[in-house]
Amino acid sequence: MTRIYNFSIINTFYIGCDGAQTVRIVCVFFANVNRTAFWAVEEKEDDTMRKSVSKLAAIVAAAALVLSGCGGGSNSSTTAGTQSSGNNTTAAAGESTTAAENTAIPAGDPIKDMVTYELVNREMESFNYLYTQLASDSQVLTNCIEGLLTSDSNGVLIPALAEDWGTEDGGLTWTFKIRQGVKWVDMNGNEKADCTAKDFITGMEWVLNYHKNSAANTSMPIEMIKGASEYYEYTKSLPAEEAQTMDESKFLEMVGVAAPDDYTLVYTCVSEKPYFDTLALYNCLYPAPKALIDELGVDGFLAMNNENMWYNGCYTITNYIHGNEKVLTKNPAYWDKDCTLFDTVTIKMVESADVAYQLYQSGEIDNINLSESNLNTIYNSESNEFHDQLVEKRPTKFSYQIHFNFDKRNEDGSPDTNWNTAVANTAFRQAWYYGLDLTPFYGRYNTINPLKCENNAYTMKGLVTMSDGTEYVSYVEELLGLKEYNGETMRRLDKEKAAELKAQAMEELSAKGVTFPVGVDYYVAAGNQNAIDSATVLKQAFSDSLGDDFVVLNIKTYVSSVIKEVREPRLASIHINGWGADYGDPQNYLGQETYGQDNAYYTVAYSNANDATDEELISIYKQYTELVDKANAINDDLDARYKAYAEAEVFFIQNALALPCYYDISWQLTHVNDYTKSYAMYGIQSEKYKNWETSVDAYTTEQYDAIAKAQAAK
To answer: 116-311, what's its fold?
Structure first.
């Protein structure tokens, strides 16, 4: 098996390629062989090794950039959710970067029982980790279920249930060696069964079975795994009862997944997929115990809860009170006996950031993301008790966009003809793109450095890098022709162009009977004052930027579930949602917006573009989809693949099918060193409470600045 090498960047390095035969990497150290990349080439100078190292050249460059890349985080109003794609940085079994190597300041006494919080509008909606695509679910469930791989604090892939993995044919087939002795347990830690390779087959069959998993989490395996698309369509064609009662024989016959023995798992891809192992961090490849499914039944497994589910991860959920709190307790049977875990983690559900701040002030929680008002209060008063504890968060992995609803409905279910006609007009959307100044809105997340939150692409920064070191999103921004950053205004703003497009849109749409101003219905949680305040700032930004004669933002509220109360009845004109990639390839972002594909998450769940009726809009979506499909068909040249995706992304943005919005780079008070957390631009591991460095005394601004500088120097 070809090994996947663990490397660390020692200093500035350069990569030069001579055709496909030679790779030169300077100052890159491969930990698992204790040699440089030159050694890797010299040790085995056959074509396979040369090809593998050639691919590593781009990977190494990506690893350097991921450390400084921005990310979009959790949204206080409406949250979408999946999780993360990124760089193909990998480590061999047993190799990772320790917490000590990622800190510059010694920590105080560690916290034994962690207490954190989450907003009530981000309460869990499903315990089925194979089904959910919500970050609010998966950020909890990643602590309960272990997959094949995880990532260390630098975003490097490291072993989880797979103690060794690799490919011998450039990514066409991948073999994972499953560690022995891993146990499934119940909520109380009682052992139920061994976790084996066959559990991964059971999990994948569930994901791809249309009548079991309702088309959730299918786009990634369908795009990558041989026979996955055919099996999905096959089960879709069957009566529901027949599909739900199928054994795994048909799946094994049709799909490129096999378990030659209990501890070997082999995936066969549709073509060379050198980034396939990055998908192993996402929940669509997670295992499921057949005995549990047999015990609960198909419907019962889909609707399982913390009390009847089985666990193989580092924690079990020993207490769950909906809308109140959940308690995670260390799993006594967890396989990694050398890791650092909390005895318990308590997640308190709160109505707003202000309530969370009160809990932090009273010492009841260990970290707090600061709202604009609280941040200003602390920042502007040197005498404030928390002034010297203000720390800027490490960028998260989410890229946020403003998503249009192209098939909006009124509360009585009838089409909102005025909005649907207006938003289908390209000039109408482009006027928003060039004219909407979001700087005040950014200030709600980062009042000190608001333009740090500026987002001008769809794909998240740091996801992938080309072989010459060019970061993909930077390339997209170059193709967009954005202005140079000046620290004062958004790079894409063009007031003159926006005014021209506004006039054009109003003329074209008035002829179609559209009345102005066009109402824009935007929903936030009724009990979340911080979200309401952010919406109020956004409303003013619309007014100041586009004019009340053009559009007016209508702030509306929902009670508990944005999905059931807003998304499913299609009441919102726009949603602001963040996407964190599931694996390391632009397809995972851009494939969520394609036309006519029921696995395209945002198309189906938010934009409703498949139900649009405007021919011009449909034509643009079809052109975009063709560009994405063209890029996805390129598998033998990653540079060509990324450039083709960039072409598709630029087309999408220039036609304003959605608007890049922001990255979540906010400020906090914390007892947790973020730079010791699992960190990758893909997967769902970022909130796994494992190997975190914590301190009973809050970190100071000085300490955190030193930690961040030490991390940036790596």
So the answer is: Dipeptide-binding Protein; domain 1 (3.90.76)
